[in-house]
Amino acid sequence: MFNPNNVFTKVITLSPALLLALLILPVIGGLVGVLLPAFSYIPALGEIGLSMKGFSALINTAGFSDMVRLSISSAFISTLLAFSINLLLVAAYFTSPWLNRIQRLLGPVLVIPHAAAAIAISFLITPSGMIARLFSPWLSGWQSPADWLLPHDPWGISMILGLTLKELPFLLLMTLAALAQTDLATNLRAQHKMALSLGYSPVTAFFKVVLPNLYPFLRLPVLAVLAYASANVEVPLILGPNAPPTLAVAIMNWFNDVDLTLRIKASAGAIIQLLLTIGLLIVWWCGEKIIKRITQLSLVNGTRNYADKGITWFVHLLTTVIVSCVLLSLVGLILWSFAGYWRFPESLPDQLVLMHWQSAFSHMQTPIMNTLLIGFIATLAAIVLTLFTLEAEQQRGYTLSRFATIVIYLPMLIPSIAFLFGLVWFQEQINSQHALFNVIFSHLLFVVPYVFLSLANSYRRLDPRFMNLAASLGATPTKVFWQIKLPMLATPICIACALGLAVSFSQYLPTLLNGGGRINTLTTEAVALASGASRRVSAVYALVQMLLPALAFALAWFIPKLLIQNQHKGNHA
Amino acid sequence: MHSLAIKHLTIWQQSTPLISLDETIQGGDILSVMGPSGSGKSTLLNWLTGMLPATFHAQGQLYLGQQELTHTASHSRRLGLLYQDALLFPHLSVAGNIAFAMPKTTRKQRTDKIHHALDQVGLKGFENRSPASLSGGQQARVALLRVLLSEPKAILLDEPFSKLDSQLRHEIRELVFAQIREHKLPAIMVTHDCVDAQAAQGKIVNLGTQEYNHA
């Protein structure tokens, strides 16, 4: 007999396994698909004997060690900077309402795609950019743009700046989210007060009392930032040096080369990239243990104050600089998108025109449609899978295993460049015709971890008394799921949707690779244009890239309110 | 030895007066502040420690001996706090918790002092234990040592015994009061328990009825 309840329960029971398979198979398969060619096994090219020639070609590539050094230094320095600034901000404003105000100011940066943020930063620091214009000619004396190698400086300073500014809001949000967990927050704040009453000045009290108990909540976000910074391609493409580029960018270029034999070298590079990222994660983890060891004694040495006044002033200054940088890049982007003729030292364009927007929009329709289509399907699939998995967890009565949790966050930690090429190879074997499907599937890998991260807490904390009450009134688990849980979770579900869309909108590498270059989205177009001639068209693309996720979050904020209003109307009728 | 003086204090919540108080506490004396919840007991403590939320405003002065503390930063007041929860720092050992509170001295001096103090309250050899492994009574004793060895100028007690069971409660109460008298510290205890207030053998102020008397 057909029973909808049973069918639904079966689907629910199966979904955790499905979710795990969906994440683990492509990642593992992709890694195998890179590992084989790395050791020169490519039957399609007539290479079937295993050898190390990919690796020796890689090591003999001119500038190889520079690429590795650049990847390591930019990832490590930017992560360390973002993390330190984050701690300083939280320490200095721990008891002040400014902490939430700064988060509100920087929060929007979070949803801006990396490519758009990098474009905005490049407009800020380029010799004819907003900073140079603001200080010229009255301070610098420049009548024409200086001859700086910005933003593509060979040391990767622009890249470090871009990554730091982009990752800081993410770390800040994660810190505040940990501090918003009521039980933890109450304890930490009470302990901070206790330290103050023992004569510790506020910043020192934060580092000695709050940080050691807060850090475990920041570990995964920091490692994700480090992994991303070491292997991403869009920020180095827009802000990094060209010759030699970072390892990840070089690998991408070799894979996309018409010379297919370069694929062996590229695969070997992907393996090195994977080791490099894992190595960085291990170094960070060891560094954490060493610092803990070293500071253990100074925690209780009785020093109440380590130049707290100076630190507080420094943080005030730093905050002002960071917030001004963010605002100034945004203003610069908007001005460029409307600028007519704009002579160098002038802070404002001579005239404002709509021309760039009009011409961009005439070419933008297909990329926008693709972006939305891919984003909506990937997000919908991710939301359904996540909700079903969380529901299965509650019906079984125990939470996901540690292994499952690690698998869900795997795509955040493993560099995408290391497994995406292998995945492309597999997809080519199965169905090379469906570029759009392949892109959506690859986006799903990156959307799921964020959707899961954002929904899991609200779902697990739902007051069980509501469900017990519904069950005592005779509602089946299926009915409780659809009629109690989902409506009660309307707000977190909408926010998870917006986050999923924002993550999908910002994907560059999966779109480019898994679509075989045939699917254009706003992000791929924006990255392609960023190295091109027209700064004005590039500004328009970056702004539209920012507007789409902003729109998604505005809807996520608005829809639950609308739903609640309608429910109340229905009750009165 | 100092006295703690609250002079002409009035605290308003928005525009409604919540507390009025004018008291001087000599060293070794304990002022008990009683009253139902909502009568402003914790607001008074927040004012004393300099952590009054922005929704309140206060008039009046706080003196420690001749020194005015009214506008001194929280962490510079040197008023020791004892809560109903021990609030031991979970990432530090028992000795670490106490050392954290002590004024800066050499490591040797600190270790000796901690050893001696633990011995006195019957926790000999507990130095390296983690706070989570202690019983409620043991935690309360470590919390007390932590406050005392921070060498405060006065002590504020916020319902300090309300989470202890009755046998333990009596024991810890006697210990705390004895230590306050021995160190000749002025103390203010906020409580809703008459037995606590009577055992303190000091003046008892009732915030709830005081409000009523003014009306």
Q: Can you walk through the features of this model?
A:
The complex is a heterodimer of chains A (573) and B (215). In chain A, 78% of the residues lie in helices and 0% in strands. Chain A is mainly α and 573 residues long. Chain A folds into two domains: 272 residues, MetI-like (MetI-like fold); 284 residues, MetI-like fold (Orthogonal Bundle), CATH 1.10.3720.10. Chain A is globular. In chain A, 46% of the residues are buried. By secondary structure, chain B is α/β, with parallel strands linked by helices. Chain B has one domain: Rossmann fold (3-Layer(aba) Sandwich). Helix content of chain B is 35%, strand content 24%. Chain B is built from seven helices and nine strands; from the N terminus they run βββαβββαααβαβαβα. The C terminus of chain B is likely disordered. The interface between A and B is medium-sized, with 24 and 31 residues.
What's this entry about, in short?
The complex is a heterodimer of chains A (573) and B (215). Chain A has 23 helices and no strands. Chain A is an all-alpha fold.
What is the fold-level CATH name, i.e. the topology of the largest domain in chain A?
MetI-like fold
CATH class descriptor name of the largest domain in chain A: Mainly Alpha
Shape of chain B: globular
Assembly state of the chains shown:
heterodimer
SS-derived structural category of chain B: alpha/beta
Q: What radius of gyration of chain A results from the CA coordinates?
A: 25 Å
Note the gap between the termini of chain B.
Answer: 37 Å
Widest sheet: strand ordering of chain B: 6-7-8-3-9
Q: Approximately what portion of the residues of chain B adopt beta-strand conformation?
A: 15-25%
Query: Biggest chain pair contact, residues each?
Result: A-B, 24 and 31 residues
Q: Write the H/E string of chain B, N to C.
A: EEEHEEEHHHEHEHEH
Mean pLDDT of chain B: 88
CATH superfamily of chain B: P-loop containing nucleotide triphosphate hydrolases
CATH topology tier name of chain B: Rossmann fold
User: Separation of termini of chain A?
Assistant: 39 Å
What is the tally of helical segments of chain B?
A: 7
Q: Any idea what the CATH superfamily of the largest domain in chain A is called?
A: MetI-like
Helix content of chain A: over 70%
